[in-house]
Design brief:
This protein is of the alpha+beta class. Among the domains are: about 60 residues; about 120 residues. Helix content is about 65%, strand content about 15%. The protein is built from 7 helices and 7 strands. It has a 3-stranded antiparallel beta sheet with strand order 1-2-3, covered by helices on one side. A two-stranded antiparallel sheet has the order 4-5. Strands 6-7 form a two-stranded antiparallel ribbon. α3 packs antiparallel against α4. The two termini are about 25 Å apart.
Amino acid sequence: MVAGLFSGLVGTIIVMGGFILIRFASPLFDRLDDIKRWSDHPDTRIVRGLLHLLAGLEDLECLRKERDEAMLRVLAREKQRLELRQKFMDTSESKKFEQLPDGTFRETYELLAKRDDGSWETVLREEGESPGESPALKKKRQDIVLQAEQLARYIEYGLPAKLTVGNKKIDVWLRQELRGRAQTVRAWAQQVALPSEPSYQGLVSQVGRTIERAVEEQWADIPKSVPADSDRFPQRVIRFTRRAIVGVVPLAAVIAVPAMAGLAFGSERVSGILRTIFQGSNGRRRYYTSRSGGLYWTDTISRRRSG
């Protein structure tokens, strides 16, 4: 009995230990895969990525100008409608929105005014795109954010492998410095996702200057930013603790439950119950035995005592 209990606990520990190993080793393997992936000609890919990013920002600026012009037209229409509503004593207006195949919405507007004889007259009827962000502008912003993240990973993971000198202290310093440059690129993506200026011209100028430095491999001249708080050591410790809780708590429960059950019900009774777990089946009848004698369950979950 004791040997069976011991074997069951050892098997449980092995299974849970494998789960914990996979849980914590998989992020490490992903990081190693990232380093290998982003280390393939990082300098060339960084220059190419910067050029694509610059072209994307210029396209985004054009789309944004078109959006701003559309908003100005909408404001002009609203001003005209307000003036007409104020001109007549009694008015009635209706709006209808229709989604077009490209994802935009078309608005049909009609303004009626009551005449002196009590009849209604249409004083304004027009159609135009409703205000809002166009699907093309949204898609371009998403593409630029993705390109910026790929570029940042080439700087953070690829360049250290290319520029390593074999000195541990210098290599650690090098990784920290390049990580700050990668954070600058991620800050560009944040400016695209949450604009703080009326245009992207300032961002276009920054990317253009960075291209010149990257072509000449003057990596130290690329602006450096402070990494986000989520990337610092305390945050990594917190994430590790949460993952450890996910793996350790079930293991502790599996080990503690048999011991607590033994204290509550007696070791002999618990041993008899645990022994039934490893029993087989007799034909179509699944049986369970205990020291108190002859208890078995059938496949229909009915219960019966013998002798």
